[in-house]
Amino acid sequence: MEENRVIDITTGSFEVHKVVSPPHRSTLLKLKNRLKETFFPDDPLRQFKGQTMKQKLILGAQYFFPILEWCPNYGFNMFKSDIVSGLTIASLAIPQGISYAKLANLPPIVGLYSSFVPPLVYAVLGSSRDLAVGPVSIASLVLGSMLREVVSPTKDPILFLQLAFSSTFFAGLFQASLGFLRLGFIIDFLSKATLIGFMAGAAIIVSLQQLKGLLGITNFTKQMAIIPVLSSVFHTINEWSWQTILMGFCFLVFLLLTRHIGMRKPKLFWVSAGAPLLSVIISTLIVFAIKGQNHGISIIGKLHQGLNPPSWNMLHFSGSYLGLVIKTGIVTGILSLTEGIAVGRTFAALKNYQVDGNKEMIAIGLMNMVGSTTSSYVTTGSFSRSAVNHNAGSKTAMSNIVMAVTVMVTLLFLMPLFQYTPNVVLGAIIVTAVIGLIDIPAAFQIWKIDKFDFLVLLCAFFGVIFISVQDGLAIAIGISILKVLMQITRPKTVMLGNIPGTGIYRNVDHYKEAMSVAGFLILSIEAPINFANVTYLKERISRWIQDYEEEGAKKQSGLRVVVLDLSPVSAIDTSGISLFKDLSMALEKKGLEFVLVNPIGEVMEKLQRADETKNLMRPGVLFLTVDEAVGSLSSTVKYQLPEHV
Amino acid sequence: MEENRVIDITTGSFEVHKVVSPPHRSTLLKLKNRLKETFFPDDPLRQFKGQTMKQKLILGAQYFFPILEWCPNYGFNMFKSDIVSGLTIASLAIPQGISYAKLANLPPIVGLYSSFVPPLVYAVLGSSRDLAVGPVSIASLVLGSMLREVVSPTKDPILFLQLAFSSTFFAGLFQASLGFLRLGFIIDFLSKATLIGFMAGAAIIVSLQQLKGLLGITNFTKQMAIIPVLSSVFHTINEWSWQTILMGFCFLVFLLLTRHIGMRKPKLFWVSAGAPLLSVIISTLIVFAIKGQNHGISIIGKLHQGLNPPSWNMLHFSGSYLGLVIKTGIVTGILSLTEGIAVGRTFAALKNYQVDGNKEMIAIGLMNMVGSTTSSYVTTGSFSRSAVNHNAGSKTAMSNIVMAVTVMVTLLFLMPLFQYTPNVVLGAIIVTAVIGLIDIPAAFQIWKIDKFDFLVLLCAFFGVIFISVQDGLAIAIGISILKVLMQITRPKTVMLGNIPGTGIYRNVDHYKEAMSVAGFLILSIEAPINFANVTYLKERISRWIQDYEEEGAKKQSGLRVVVLDLSPVSAIDTSGISLFKDLSMALEKKGLEFVLVNPIGEVMEKLQRADETKNLMRPGVLFLTVDEAVGSLSSTVKYQLPEHV
C-alpha cells in the first residue's frame, strides 16, 4: 500500500479569490443584532409591519388576548366539537384533580378549584387550541414533596396550604417573568434525555406513593425515595387491608385495560377518557352499598360545597418560609412550564399552527398567579388530558371553558356524591395516568443514537428514584451542561485530504478516498475558539505537526505548510486570537509556512483588529478555500498523493 | 439594482460524490479516543514508544523527577549563571516573603520559611527552568482574607496559623490531584480577560491594605472592599504618623523609580531586583539610628532564629473548620496554580522548551503539601521574581536551590537584623510589586478586539474591589461560561450564496459578490446542534424561509429547495437529530425539497441510526458539497442570479 501516485497540475490556472473583511457595522448595531437574536428570534413584531394604526391596535389586542382572534369567527359547528371535547376532559379532570391534589398533600377539593379558575384564565390568554389545563402529576408531586420536607401537611394543614398557594404565586410570577423578559430559552436546558429519565423516575416515585392507598396502609413513610418507601411498605404488612387490595386491583386492571384500548384505537379515546369517572362512580356506589368505610376501606370524606374561596390573604411574601416558597415556586414553575410548552408545541405541529413560546409562558404564568389568589395550586397543560382533548376534536380554547363550567357545576351541586369515594380508586387513577410517563421506546432510541445522552437519562432516572426528585433533575441538567462545556474544551481537529479530481477537501479518517497533499498539513478546527480550549488546541496542533513530521521522516517528504481551515470556527475571543499569533511565531521558528483559510466575518474582524503587525493579514496567508491555498502555495511543487497519513 | 443576471450552466457535466458514513468504530474505541483527547491531549507516553526496558526506566524516572534530566549534564558555566540569578531572586524573595506573609495576616517569618522548603521541592520535581518559587501576592491576599472572615489573626493567632497551614495542605492536595487526574484544563476556565481584571482589582485591594502601614494607622478596618477601607482611612486621620508617611513616601518613590529603570532597560534588571533589599537595609539602619520605634514608626519586632519547625501536628483534617480550609485551599490552589502555570508556559515559550501542564501541577501540589508540614503557606511560581530570574540568566532549577540556601543562611544567622525593619517599607515593597499586575495596555487591547471580553474584565475588576476577591472571581468566571453557553444557545445561521464563476459558496452578508441562487435557500448552521439550541434553530430557520418567501413573492421566484450546509456542525445529540426530522416533515408539507450537505462523521452516524424510515438518508437528500447539491437539483432550471436577497 506504499505506492505514491503523483499528479501534475497546471498551477498557472489558479485563480485566487481575496478574503475580504465583512462590511463595517458599529458596535451598537452588532449589539442590537445579538440582542435581537437572543431575545426575539421569532421576530414577534413582523406582523405589525406596514399596517394602519387601527389594524395595529387590533393586532396588538389579539396578540395579548388570543381569544379575540378566534372568538369573532366562532360558529356553532366549532362549539359542538368543543362541547364534546370539553365534557370529555371534564370527566377526566374531576377524578384526576382530586387525585393529584392528594398527591400534593393538599385537600382533594383544591384539585377541583384548580380545574375551575385557571382554565378560564387560559382560555382568554392562551394561544394553544388543544391544551387541557389543570393540575398535573409531576408538578403536584414536586410541590408536595418539597414543602413536606419543611412543614407537615397533617400536623399543620393550614400553613401547608398557605405555602402551597404562595409557591403557586411565585411559580406563576417566575413563568410570566421568563416570558416577559423573553428568557424562555431557559427551559431548553431540559434536554429530551433529561426529561425522559426524569419523568420515568417521577412516575415510579408517584406509583410507589400510591401503595399507601392501594394497600390500605395508614402509617406510611413520609420519604419519597424508593428504598425507604419499599421498606415502609413491607414493615407495615400487618396494616394491609384485603378489601382495599381487592378493590384496588380490580379497578387498576379495568383502568389499564381501557387505557390500552384507547391507545391502540385512537377513535375509542372515550373509553379510556371515561373510565376514571366511571370507576369513581362505581366504586363510590359499592362503598356506599356495602358501607365499605367500616371494612377498612378509607374514603375521601365530606367535601365542602361551593366555588373557589379567595386565598390572597393566605399568600406569604415575607417571613421564614419565603425562601422555601420561592425555591418551590421556581422548580415547579420550570417543570410545569416545560410540560405545558412541550404539549402546546406538539399539538400545534400536528395541526400546523404556531405557538409563541414566550407568549404561552406569560399566559401560563398569569393563570397561576390568578389561581394562587383563588385557592388553586400549580396548573399547566396536562399531556394526557390534552391528547384526549385533541382526539375528542377540540377546535379552540372553548373546550377549557366547557370543562371549567362542568367543574363549576360539580363544585356547586355534586360534592356530597364524592363523600364515599374510596381513596384506593384515586390511587389506581394516578398509577394509570403516570404509567404513560415511562417511555421505554424513546429511551431505547436514545441509547441507539447517543450513549452519552443515555447516561444523562440514567442519571436523571436513578437520581430521582434513589435521591430525590429535585436532586435527580439538578444532576441531569448539570451533566447535560457539562457535556456541552466538554465539547467546547476539547474541540475536534481533523486532518483534511483532497478528494482526487476535485477541489474538495474532507476528513481523511471519514473519506477513505481523500488524499493528503505532500508537504501540506491541512487541519480543520471544528468549534469556536475561546479561553476554554486555546491551551488544548495549541497542544493538539503541535501533536499533529509532530505526527506528520515523524510520518514524513519515514517517507522522506518534509512538511512545508500548515493550513488551518477556519470555516467551522463560528466565534473567537481574545484568547483565541492569541492562539494564531503564538502558532504563527512557533511555526516561523520551525521554518514552516502558516496559512489560514476562510475565516468567517467575526473572526476576520477580530484578527484584523488584533493583528497590528499585519503578520497574519498579509497576502499569501489568508485564502478563501483550502483548494486555492494548496494550489497557490504548491505552484512550484508537484502534487504528490500518498496513501492517507 | 434590480437587474437579474441569468446564466446557463451545463448541468449534465455534474459529477456528484457520494456522502459515505465513516468507517465503523465500536463504542468502546470511541470512548477510548474521547477519553484520550480529554485527559491525554499531549500524549505523554509518546517518548516511551519503541524504547528498551532500561531506557524506559530512565525516561520514567526523568519524567517524574526532571532534576535527573538536567543534573547529569550540569556544568560549571551553568552553575555560575544560576548562582547569579539565585542570589538576585533571594535578594527579592527575602523582603517580599516577609511582606506577603504580613499580607496574609501571618507572622513575617512564615514568609521566609515558605521561601526555603518549597523551592527545594520544586527544584527536584519541577520542569520549568525559570520559575522562581515562593509566596505570591494574590494567593497571600486571598488566603488571609478568606480565613480572617471566620477567625481573627490577632485574637487567635495559633488557630489562624493552623488554618493557614491546613489550607495550604488542601491547596496542594487539590493541585496535585488536578495534575494526577489530568484535569488541568479546569484552570483554562480562567480566561485572559478574567485574569487581567481580577489581578488589577486585587492589586488595588492589596495596595489599599498597605495604607495601614504607609500611613502608620493602628486601628485599621478588617474589611477588604474599597469603600470600607477608604472610609476607615479617613476616619482614623488622627492616627496618621508623619514620620511614617515621610519614610514611606521616600522609599515608595525610590522603589518605583528603580522599577521603572528595570522595566525600560532589561539589562539593568539588578537595579530593580536589588532595590527592595537595599530599602530594607537602609530603612532598618535609619530606624535603628534614630530609634524610630519611639517616634511612631512601627517595626517588625523580634523574629525567631532557626529553620522551619515541623507543622504536621498543626493540620486540621476534621472539626468545624474543615469546610473553611478546604474551600480556602481550593480557591488559593486554583489561583496559585494559574499563576505558576502561566509563568512557566510564558518563559518556556520564550526559551523554546516544553512545560507539561499536568506534571507542573503535580510538582506545585506536592511542593505545597510538603510545605504545609514544614511551616510554609501557599507558594507558587511568582511572575515578577521569575522575570528577574530569567533576566538574570538562570539556566536550571538550581537557581531555586541557591535562593533557598541564601534564605537558609538568613534564617539561621541574620534574623536579629530584621528586628528594626519598619513595617512601612514592607508596605512600599508590596505596592511596588503589585502595581505591575495592573496591565492597562492589555485591557485596552481586549477592549479593541472583543467588547464582551472587556465586560468580563470589568466585572472581575469591580467585583473584586467592591464586593470581595472571591466573589469578583466567581462572577467573572460565571459570565465567561455564560457567554460560551449563550453562543451555543443562539448559534449563528447564515445564508450562503455562490461566488460567480466558482463552486464556492459563502455568507452573502460577508461576501458582497456572493449571489443567492434562485429557488434555493442555502443555510449554514455554525455550531453543534443540541438540546439547548434546537428550539431556536427551528424558529430561526422558519424565519429564514418566511423571509425568503416574502422576498421571493416580490420577485415572483418561488422557493423550491432548502439546503442545510452541516460542515460546521461538529456534534449533535438526540434532540438535534429530531430537528432534521421535524424540518423534513414541515418542509414536505409546504412542498419544498430538503437537502443536507456534508454531515461530518459523528453527525452522519447518528443520522443513520435515527433514520429508520430512510427518509433523510435516501439519495438526492445528502450531498458532499453545496455546489453539487445545487448543480444536481437545478438540472431542469436555469441559474438565476439576482442581487443578494
Architecture overview:
2 copies of one chain form a homodimer. Chain A is mainly alpha-helical. Chain A has 2 domains: 76-484, no CATH class; 491-641, 2-Layer Sandwich (Transcription Regulator spoIIAA). The first copy, chain A, is 58% helix and 6% strand. The first copy, chain A, has helices at residues 27-39, 53-64, 67-70, 76-103, 108-113, 117-125, 137-148, 157-180, 192-215, 226-235, 242-264, 269-290, 322-351, 357-372, 383-391, 398-414, 423-435, 440-449, 451-467, 469-489, 534-555, 574-589, 601-610, 626-633, and strands spanning 5-7, 133-134, 380-381, 493-498, 505-507, 520-525, 561-565, 593-597, 622-623, 639-641. In chain A, strands 5-4-6-7-8-9 form a 6-stranded mixed β-sheet. In chain A, strands 1-10 form a two-stranded antiparallel ribbon. In chain A, α9 packs antiparallel against α17 and α11 runs antiparallel to α12. Chains A and B meet through α1, α9, α18, α19 and α20 of A and α1, α9, α18, α19 and α20 of B.
